[in-house]
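Researcher: Sequence recovery benchmark, item below. Answer with residues only.
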Protein backbone atom coordinates (compact mmCIF):
# COMPACT_ATOMS: atom_id res chain seq x y z
CA UNK A 1 0.00 0.00 0.00
CA UNK A 2 1.12 3.55 -0.80
CA UNK A 3 0.22 6.45 1.47
CA UNK A 4 0.13 9.96 0.02
CA UNK A 5 0.44 12.42 2.90
CA UNK A 6 -0.63 16.02 2.19
CA UNK A 7 -0.45 19.02 4.53
CA UNK A 8 -1.85 22.38 3.36
CA UNK A 9 -1.66 25.81 4.97
CA UNK A 10 -5.15 27.28 4.63
CA UNK A 11 -6.02 30.86 5.66
CA UNK A 12 -8.96 31.05 8.06
CA UNK A 13 -11.06 32.93 5.52
CA UNK A 14 -10.53 30.13 2.97
CA UNK A 15 -11.39 27.15 5.18
CA UNK A 16 -14.97 26.81 3.97
CA UNK A 17 -13.95 27.04 0.30
CA UNK A 18 -11.11 24.54 0.82
CA UNK A 19 -13.42 22.10 2.58
CA UNK A 20 -16.07 22.33 -0.12
CA UNK A 21 -13.45 21.70 -2.80
CA UNK A 22 -11.97 18.80 -0.85
CA UNK A 23 -15.37 17.09 -0.83
CA UNK A 24 -15.15 17.13 -4.63
CA UNK A 25 -12.43 14.50 -4.51
CA UNK A 26 -15.20 11.90 -4.20
CA UNK A 27 -14.46 11.25 -7.89
CA UNK A 28 -11.52 9.16 -6.68
CA UNK A 29 -13.85 6.34 -5.65
CA UNK A 30 -13.88 4.61 -9.02
CA UNK A 31 -10.18 4.94 -9.86
CA UNK A 32 -8.43 1.52 -10.16
CA UNK A 33 -6.10 0.83 -7.25
CA UNK A 34 -7.63 3.51 -5.00
CA UNK A 35 -8.09 2.24 -1.42
CA UNK A 36 -9.44 5.29 0.38
CA UNK A 37 -8.88 8.89 1.45
CA UNK A 38 -9.47 10.71 4.71
CA UNK A 39 -8.56 14.05 6.16
CA UNK A 40 -9.47 17.04 8.27
CA UNK A 41 -8.03 19.88 10.32
CA UNK A 42 -5.14 19.41 12.73
CA UNK A 43 -4.46 21.14 16.04
CA UNK A 44 -2.79 24.09 14.26
CA UNK A 45 -5.52 24.61 11.66
CA UNK A 46 -3.69 22.89 8.82
CA UNK A 47 -5.56 20.70 6.36
CA UNK A 48 -4.17 17.14 6.44
CA UNK A 49 -5.13 14.42 3.96
CA UNK A 50 -4.03 10.79 3.67
CA UNK A 51 -4.64 9.06 0.33
CA UNK A 52 -4.29 5.28 0.17
CA UNK A 53 -3.30 3.41 -3.00
CA UNK A 54 -2.68 -0.25 -3.80
CA UNK A 55 0.82 0.34 -5.20
CA UNK A 56 2.95 2.90 -7.04
CA UNK A 57 1.79 1.72 -10.43
CA UNK A 58 -1.84 2.51 -9.54
CA UNK A 59 -0.80 5.86 -8.11
CA UNK A 60 1.20 6.78 -11.23
CA UNK A 61 -1.76 5.87 -13.43
CA UNK A 62 -3.97 8.16 -11.37
CA UNK A 63 -1.52 11.05 -11.60
CA UNK A 64 -1.04 10.77 -15.37
CA UNK A 65 -4.56 9.84 -16.48
CA UNK A 66 -7.04 11.08 -13.86
CA UNK A 67 -5.61 13.74 -11.55
CA UNK A 68 -5.86 16.70 -13.91
CA UNK A 69 -9.44 15.86 -14.88
CA UNK A 70 -10.45 16.24 -11.23
CA UNK A 71 -8.42 19.38 -10.53
CA UNK A 72 -9.58 21.14 -13.70
CA UNK A 73 -13.07 21.37 -12.27
CA UNK A 74 -11.92 22.02 -8.72
CA UNK A 75 -11.14 25.52 -7.42
CA UNK A 76 -9.15 24.23 -4.47
CA UNK A 77 -5.74 25.43 -5.60
CA UNK A 78 -6.56 29.04 -4.80
CA UNK A 79 -7.70 28.24 -1.25
CA UNK A 80 -4.31 27.43 0.32
CA UNK A 81 -0.98 29.23 0.52
CA UNK A 82 1.37 26.23 0.65
CA UNK A 83 1.26 22.46 0.48
CA UNK A 84 3.65 19.64 1.32
CA UNK A 85 3.21 16.23 -0.30
CA UNK A 86 5.13 13.01 0.35
CA UNK A 87 4.72 9.35 -0.57
CA UNK A 88 5.27 6.48 1.86
CA UNK A 89 5.37 2.71 1.34
CA UNK A 90 3.45 0.75 3.96
CA UNK A 91 5.69 -1.47 6.08
CA UNK A 92 3.05 -2.97 8.36
CA UNK A 93 -0.55 -2.54 9.45
CA UNK A 94 -1.52 -1.64 12.98
CA UNK A 95 -4.44 -3.73 14.21
CA UNK A 96 -7.13 -3.79 11.46
CA UNK A 97 -5.15 -1.54 9.12
CA UNK A 98 -5.93 1.99 8.04
CA UNK A 99 -8.30 1.38 5.08
CA UNK A 100 -10.75 -0.50 7.33
CA UNK A 101 -10.42 1.72 10.41
CA UNK A 102 -13.17 4.07 11.57
CA UNK A 103 -13.28 6.95 14.02
CA UNK A 104 -13.18 10.71 14.25
CA UNK A 105 -9.49 11.35 14.97
CA UNK A 106 -6.37 10.59 12.94
CA UNK A 107 -3.10 10.75 14.86
CA UNK A 108 0.01 11.05 12.68
CA UNK A 109 3.66 11.01 13.74
CA UNK A 110 6.05 12.13 11.00
CA UNK A 111 9.43 10.81 12.15
CA UNK A 112 13.03 11.39 11.09
CA UNK A 113 15.20 8.54 12.33
CA UNK A 114 18.87 8.82 13.20
CA UNK A 115 21.45 7.09 11.01
CA UNK A 116 22.06 3.53 12.14
CA UNK A 117 18.84 3.40 14.20
CA UNK A 118 16.29 2.44 11.53
CA UNK A 119 16.40 -1.30 12.19
CA UNK A 120 15.75 -0.74 15.89
CA UNK A 121 13.04 1.81 15.15
CA UNK A 122 11.17 -0.70 12.95
CA UNK A 123 11.65 -3.51 15.45
CA UNK A 124 10.17 -1.59 18.39
CA UNK A 125 7.31 -0.41 16.20
CA UNK A 126 6.46 -4.06 15.54
CA UNK A 127 7.12 -5.43 19.03
CA UNK A 128 6.22 -2.55 21.35
CA UNK A 129 4.16 0.20 19.73
CA UNK A 130 1.84 -1.87 17.53
CA UNK A 131 0.58 -4.27 20.23
CA UNK A 132 0.52 -1.55 22.89
CA UNK A 133 -1.35 0.95 20.76
CA UNK A 134 -3.52 -1.63 19.02
CA UNK A 135 -4.90 -2.87 22.33
CA UNK A 136 -5.93 0.57 23.55
CA UNK A 137 -9.68 1.26 23.87
CA UNK A 138 -10.97 3.33 20.97
CA UNK A 139 -8.03 2.58 18.66
CA UNK A 140 -9.44 1.29 15.36
CA UNK A 141 -6.40 0.68 13.16
CA UNK A 142 -3.46 2.30 11.48
CA UNK A 143 -0.33 1.95 9.38
CA UNK A 144 3.43 2.27 9.70
CA UNK A 145 5.12 3.45 6.51
CA UNK A 146 8.55 4.38 5.16
CA UNK A 147 9.33 7.41 3.02
CA UNK A 148 12.50 8.70 1.40
CA UNK A 149 15.70 8.63 3.37
CA UNK A 150 15.12 8.00 7.05
CA UNK A 151 11.56 9.38 7.16
CA UNK A 152 8.72 7.28 8.59
CA UNK A 153 5.02 7.88 9.13
CA UNK A 154 2.90 6.35 11.88
CA UNK A 155 -0.85 6.81 11.37
CA UNK A 156 -3.50 5.65 13.82
CA UNK A 157 -7.25 6.21 13.75
CA UNK A 158 -9.16 6.67 17.00
CA UNK A 159 -12.81 6.85 17.99
CA UNK A 160 -12.35 10.43 19.19
CA UNK A 161 -9.99 12.83 20.98
CA UNK A 162 -10.97 11.42 24.39
CA UNK A 163 -9.91 7.89 23.42
CA UNK A 164 -6.53 9.12 22.23
CA UNK A 165 -6.08 11.30 25.32
CA UNK A 166 -6.71 8.26 27.55
CA UNK A 167 -4.10 6.29 25.64
CA UNK A 168 -1.61 9.14 25.99
CA UNK A 169 -2.17 9.30 29.75
CA UNK A 170 -2.41 5.59 30.56
CA UNK A 171 -0.27 3.68 28.05
CA UNK A 172 1.99 6.02 26.12
CA UNK A 173 4.59 6.78 28.86
CA UNK A 174 5.35 3.10 29.49
CA UNK A 175 5.47 2.28 25.76
CA UNK A 176 7.80 5.19 25.08
CA UNK A 177 10.12 4.04 27.86
CA UNK A 178 10.18 0.45 26.57
CA UNK A 179 10.74 1.57 22.97
CA UNK A 180 13.64 3.88 23.79
CA UNK A 181 12.25 6.35 21.26
CA UNK A 182 14.65 9.10 22.28
CA UNK A 183 17.56 7.00 21.04
CA UNK A 184 16.09 6.58 17.55
CA UNK A 185 14.58 9.92 16.62
CA UNK A 186 16.27 12.91 15.06
CA UNK A 187 12.97 14.83 14.80
CA UNK A 188 9.24 14.21 15.02
CA UNK A 189 6.22 16.26 13.94
CA UNK A 190 2.87 15.29 15.40
CA UNK A 191 -0.61 15.87 13.98
CA UNK A 192 -3.97 15.35 15.69
CA UNK A 193 -6.43 15.55 12.83
CA UNK A 194 -10.14 16.03 13.53
CA UNK A 195 -11.54 14.15 10.56
CA UNK A 196 -14.13 15.72 8.26
CA UNK A 197 -16.70 13.11 7.16
CA UNK A 198 -17.30 14.95 3.87
CA UNK A 199 -13.61 14.52 2.96
CA UNK A 200 -13.61 10.75 3.34
CA UNK A 201 -13.72 8.76 0.13
CA UNK A 202 -14.14 4.99 -0.06
CA UNK A 203 -13.43 2.91 -3.15
CA UNK A 204 -16.42 1.86 -5.23
CA UNK A 205 -17.95 -1.39 -4.06
CA UNK A 206 -16.61 -1.15 -0.48
CA UNK A 207 -19.01 -1.73 2.35
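Model:
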Amino acid sequence: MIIKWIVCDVPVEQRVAFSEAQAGWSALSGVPGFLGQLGGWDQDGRACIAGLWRDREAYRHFMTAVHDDITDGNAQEGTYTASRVALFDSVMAIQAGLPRAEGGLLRVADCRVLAGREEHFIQVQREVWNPGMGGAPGMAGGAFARGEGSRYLVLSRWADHAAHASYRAERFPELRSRAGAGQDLDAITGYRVALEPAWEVSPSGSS
